[in-house]
Automatic annotation (TrEMBL):
Domain Dihydroprymidine dehydrogenase: 25-136
Name used for this protein in its record: NAD(P)-dependent oxidoreductase
Iron-sulfur found in the keyword field: yes
GO MF term set: 4 iron, 4 sulfur cluster binding; metal ion binding; oxidoreductase activity
Entry keywords, A to Z: 4Fe-4S, Iron, Iron-sulfur, Metal-binding, Oxidoreductase
Domain FAD/NAD(P)-binding: 150-457
Originating organism: Qingshengfaniella alkalisoli
NCBIfam families: gltD_gamma_fam
Length: 478
């Protein structure tokens, strides 16, 4: 009788990959979790209950075939597990590292609801694809037939690269334009190495390049090339720029030196990790070493900033958030990691002003939670007379991101945007009001998750392929 590989959750406890001790990992920017060994990955995958209605799959934006590749992993059929994982997700090894699994697949695991501890879906997903790269199962894109159609993708983040991958596999000619000197968007310069080591992103970039995707880097659309020129050179344009405009702080002294944007702070740190020369880092402007750091915000970007400051050798690191822990939008796993590494969270607080031409302190207002708003979250309310000052040498604004004004930047006043400034698209095809122009990811959704950008990119790529195939069929019928 064959050994039962699945339904092991009753006898096998949840066991995450080993996490490096906080006093060791906060000294470098390497990933904090070790890799599963093959036996351990199979054991943990075997905890899956193979339930009839897989909530893990339905709560994944990509609807990954999670129960199926968990079963294949438990059975030792790793190459098949990789192929199945790759079928729905362009970058499973990246999602396995940075997705907030506690809010998505793992947070909705059936055995978690029954008190047995969720399957470690993200860690197994990461293991499958890392193994696939090691074994040589991940091959460069090799289209069976080259097509004449050409697509320009503006933005080399997860949405743009996911679309590039799908289009190139069908033989479409793809050129990716990006303002930065490396491809990857926030995966390269926004997310720190302790969550996503950069060679993981670079090897995907190399796979795309070897597969025939062309990259035009250090290319700022609207300055180095016009949007109209791009449209003229290509059959279709896909906008995947993301959102990079930082929500600003209000209050007296908010323009003081020493108050910096999260994106600038994280980009500088990641560039230094690449070995680049960054004058703003060397001067101390974007370097937390020896400083009392205050990060304002409660999302995953704020978590990236506080944990980066710890690794740069900050004297102290505090995170101000206007709601409580239960209402924090960031991953609870990331909050726990930050606390272990020495970050102090100051809940129910908001900045009221700043002292010093070069920031010396933050005037803080204490808050309480009132009635729920339209989204169901309790609204923070000011507690009168409870202000106090917090000493600070560096303040990082991590209040979220807003879209840039693309119609103005690109001289495209006819491009429709929403009242929030995001690009307006057809929710089925991702096409804008401009013929042959599509848009995906954060520039449509607002600041969101990498996994949603990947989903958008894949859906838009399919819509673009349908457009091309319809045109070919129409020509053949004439």
């Amino acid at each position: 009788m064959a050994k039962q590989r699945m339904l092991q959750f009753v006898t096998v406890e949840r066991d995450m990959p080993e996490k490096r001790a906080a006093d060791q990992r906060n000294q470098d920017f390497n990933e904090i979790y070790a890799e599963y060994a093959e036996q351990k990955a199979a054991e943990q995958a075997g905890r899956c209950s193979q339930c009839g209605v897989p909530y893990c799959q339905s709560h994944c934006p990509l609807h990954n075939n999670i129960p199926d590749w968990l079963r294949l992993t438990a059975e030792g059929r790793l190459e098949e597990a990789y192929q199945l994982s790759q079928a729905t997700n362009t970058f499973p090894e990246i999602c396995g590292r940075i997705c907030p699994q506690d809010r998505l697949c793992e947070g909705n695991c059936v055995i978690e609801q029954s008190g047995h501890g969720t399957v470690t879906i993200g860690a197994v997903e990461k293991y499958i694809t890392d193994t696939a790269f090691e074994k040589g199962w991940v091959q460069p894109i090799a289209p069976k037939v080259e097509r004449e159609e050409s697509v320009a993708i503006i933005g080399a983040g997860p949405g743009g690269l996911a679309a590039a991958d799908m289009l190139r596999r069908q033989g479409v000619q793809v050129t990716v334009y990006d303002r930065y000197d490396r491809s990857g968007g926030l995966m390269i310069y926004g997310i720190p190495g302790f969550k996503l080591e950069k060679d993981i992103v670079m090897r995907r970039n190399q796979q795309l390049e070897k597969g025939g995707v062309k990259f035009e880097l250090n290319c700022n659309v609207g300055e180095d090339i016009t949007f109209e020129d791009i449209r003229a050179k290509h059959d279709v344009v896909l906008i995947a720029t993301g959102v990079y405009k930082t929500r600003d702080l209000q209050g007296p002294g908010s323009g003081a030196k020493g108050i910096v944007r999260a994106i600038d702070y994280l980009t500088a740190s990641n560039k230094v990790s690449f070995g680049d020369t960054v004058p703003e880092y060397d001067s101390g402007e974007l370097n937390a070493e020896g400083k009392r750091v205050v990060v304002i915000g409660g999302g995953d970007t704020a978590m990236d900033c506080v944990r980066t400051a710890v690794r740069q050798g900050a004297k102290s690191v505090k995170c101000l958030y206007r709601r409580d822990r239960a209402n924090m939008p960031g991953s609870q796993r990331e909050v726990q990691n930050a606390e272990e590494e020495g970050v102090e969270f100051v809940w129910l607080t908001a900045p009221k002003g700043f002292a010093g031409d070069t920031v010396e302190s933050v005037l803080i207002s204490k808050m309480r939670l009132g009635q729920p708003d339209a989204t169901g979250r309790q609204t923070p309310e000011l507690i009168e007379g409870a202000d106090y000052a917090e000493d600070a040498d560096l303040v990082v604004k991590a209040l979220g991101f807003e879209p840039e004004d693309l119609p103005a930047l690109w001289d495209q006043p006819e491009l429709e945007v929403t009242r929030w400034g995001t690009v307006k698209t057809d929710f089925r095809t991702h096409e804008t009001n401009l013929d042959g122009v599509y848009a995906v990811g954060d520039i449509v959704r607002g600041a969101s998750l990498v996994v949603w950008a990947i989903r958008d990119g894949r859906e838009a790529a399919q819509a673009i392929l349908d457009r091309f195939n319809t045109a070919v069929t129409a020509v053949a019928a004439e």
